[in-house]
Every structure is written in structure tokens, then in C-alpha cells.
Amino acid sequence: MNYLRRTVIALALALMLIATPALTALAQDDGVGLGCNGLSDSDCTLLQDATLATEALASYSIPAWTVNAYFSAEQETVFVEASGSATIALPEEIVLLRDTFASVETVTPDTLHAFLLQLDANSIQRMLDDLLVAFTVDQFALAAPGEALTAYGAVLYKDRAFYLNLPAPSGENAWFSQPVTLTNADLDEIDEALAELRDAVLEPDIDEAFDAAGGMLVMQQEINALMQRHLTTTRLADDTLDGQPAAVFSSTFNAKDLLSDPDLATTFLAVLENFTAQDPEMEPIEINEAQLQLLLTAVNLLIPEGSLTVNQWVGLDDGYLQRITLDGTLNIDPSLLMPGEETAPEPVVFDLSGAFDLADFNAVSPDDVAVPADYYPAEMLDEFLVGTPEQVEQVLAVGDAVPGSFSLDGSTHIYALPLEAGQTVVLSLESDHYPYLSVYNPDAFLVETHSIFGGEPLAFTADADGVHFVTVEGFSELDYTLTVIEAEG
Description:
The chain is an alpha+beta fold. It has two domains: 2-206 and 236-248 and 307-368, no CATH class; 388-486, Jelly Rolls. Helix content is 29%, strand content 38%. The chain is built from ten helices and 24 strands. The chain has helices at 2-25, 41-55, 92-102, 109-117, 121-130, 184-200, 206-228, 255-259, 264-277, 289-302; strands at 28-29, 32-33, 59-73, 76-89, 132-144, 147-158, 161-167, 173-179, 231-235, 239-241, 244-254, 305-315, 321-332, 348-357, 376-377, 392-395, 401-406, 411-419, 424-431, 436-440, 446-451, 458-461, 466-474, 478-486. Strands 3, 4, 5, 6, 7, 8, 9, 10, 11, 12, 13, 14 and 15 form a 13-stranded mixed sheet that branches.
């Protein structure tokens, strides 16, 4: 039952982390709010109030989100596009704990102990009862060298049960479910783990950990102050979202400007020295400021472009963030350090963009999200073939002899095999190594698995009409030939 203890610890830490952004947003730098460089005092207050109000929500929905990523290196490109929606509703007890913890100005062992006193097995069980998290991927598309696929899926937690929606090579998705069941013994162990945690935070040596955390916080503040110089926010023209007027703010962070900052080497070196001072076992930093400055200059030369822009729409009626978009780019060109070289490496380009709409502020109920009517128990996940139609190598027919090969890191090849109920075929896999052969029914569940180590082929009889799936799996570099033969009557 160690996983229960880890669950309790993770829950406590998660609640602490939920409060952290709110505390960070309250930080001030020379009278200017964090992320407000370039804004008037009134606009800074408007943006920060909206951020804090959104972070304090008990429930909300994301009617639409999109993420696009592009990566290019060594004349190969990878493009990922995804979109979907999400819904979150936190139980009242989690909200109360979060808000209580967020109101603490300084976290000490005593405040953490008081926080843990508010948790017990029954309260955690109630939180699990009322928690709602739904995340849906309506579309996922990947384009890479030699590979292109599309898929969709979902993750849902409701009524103390997990639900997972996964794609199959047939093009049909399947739901799986796993209830979260806590026995009396489990509840007792949770209470014991919480008692141990409460005792642990009052141990004398815990003060050292908090001192180290305080030192890390100071270092974070120093870095934030430096980055603040290169983070500029402006208010754009107002917009209208769903009939509500919205103030639009655009924040841009310029990485090249940061790398050119003459104070970066001094600040970074001080952070490194403070970090090593927290751990006596760490070796001292053997680099001086001039050497570090030279290194940062070289890195700056390698980056023709590096920036991140975040736009935020603030509802002027309700005071919440209505939409968030981001656009980031990082270009690395090693050839800039090797002018005139004929074989200079190609530039590396990474672009990322995303958009997230927010709605239904404090107006989401678990009743708004339905659980799937039909699903398989999670125990069957190990027998389910996750994949997409694009991953099917080809459609097999009786008499086919298909060659294939795997690269050094291994892989899985999927083949489609149409069969009629009662039809028996013999699958023969020939190779100098030992790949594995598996057969899945039209619902993509495993019905036969076979290793060629014994040298015998696999005879398989279909229980139903439909397209079955045959997989060949290898764990090393190898060649093989897959043959389909009609069994003799």
C-alpha cells in the first residue's frame, strides 16, 4: 500500500503548488507588479486582479484549446497539431484548503503542520468523491519523417473513477474504466501516513530544509527581477468575447535581450554559488564571471531568435481571464560559429503556439459531464492494441509473404487481416532473430500471441467476421518475413 502514502504526499504537495502561483503573482518589483513592465498602474492592477481571480476559481471549463508545435533539425521536420476541450471542478474542501494556504504570507513548519491537521482519510475520500477533471483531445495530428497519423481520445475522472478513451487501428475508440476504491484498511493507512507527515514536519532537521527552500526562493526572486527587465507587457485595443468587452494584454519575453544583459553573468554566478552553499557535499563552482560572460556571449551568437509572447483577454464585466494565447520560437544556428565551413550543421528551429478559451466560471457541476455508458475494465488495457488506421502497414491476404525490418531501437508493425468467422489461417514468421507475433480481434483485443523461438507457425481461427490485426514486435535490429497461409481442411 505504499502507493497510498505517495498519493497522500502528492495531494498535500499539489495543494501547496496550487497556492504558489497566487503568491508569486503578488510579488512586487520596485513598485511594479510582476509581468507589468510597460503597463500603467491601473492596467497592471486590472491584469493581476484577473489573474488572481481566475486562479481562485472552484470550477471552469475550457470550451476549446489548441496546441501547434513545429520542430526542424538536420533537414527533417516534425509537426504536431492538437485541439480539444476540458472541464475542471474542485471539491469545496480542496478550494477551502487552497485558499487558506494561499493566504499564508510565510510558509513555516508550523503553518505546514496546521495545514496537514486539516487533512484526514475521510476528507481525502470526500475530495475524491466530488472531484471532476475532464480532458478531451478532439483531434491529434502528427507529421514526421516516415510517419503520419491522426487520433483522438479523452481522460475523465468523476465519481471516484478514472475513464480513458484510446484509439484502435480500426478507427474506433474504446473506453476503459478503473474505480478508485478505498477499503477501511486503506483509510487507516492514509491516516497513519498523514500522522507521520505531521510528525516529520516538526522534526528539528526540517528547519534546515525550510532554510534551503528560503534560499531557493531568494534566488528565484533575483532571477525574476532580472527577467522582468526583458518582459514587456502592453495593452492592445479592446476586444469583445461572447458579448463581453475585454481588455487585451500582450506580454513578450526576449531571450536574446536577456543573454545580452551585462548583469546576467553576475546574477547567474551568484545563484550558482548560493545553490552550492545549500549543499555542503556539492563541489564549488569552478568558473569566474569573465568565463561565464564569454559562455553566455557564445550562446547568444547561436540563437538568431528566441522569444515568447503571451496574450491575455480580461473580461471587463466579470474580471476573469477569458482567453490566453501563446507564441514562442527558438532558432539555434550552430553555423554562426563556423563561418565559411562547407559542412556546417543545419539550423534547429522550434515553434510553439497555443490558444485556450475559458468559460463557465464557478458554474460547472459534475452533473454537466456524463460518464461513458459502455466501457471495458482497466485490466483489459494490456490486451488492447492502441493505434490508428495510419499505422497499419498494409492489408494482408491469404498467400501473402510480406517482408519487414526493424531499426536498432525496435518497433511494432501492424497489419490488417480480413477474416470470416470460422476461417483458419496459419501465420508464419521467419527471422534470424526472435520477433513476437500477436493477433487481435476486430475490436483490437488480443486473442493470440506467439514467439518464433520454438520454430512453429501460429494457427488461428477467427471467432467473428471482420478485420483482425496482426502485429510483429521486435526488440532489436532484425529482418523478417510474415506469411499468411490458408489452413488445410
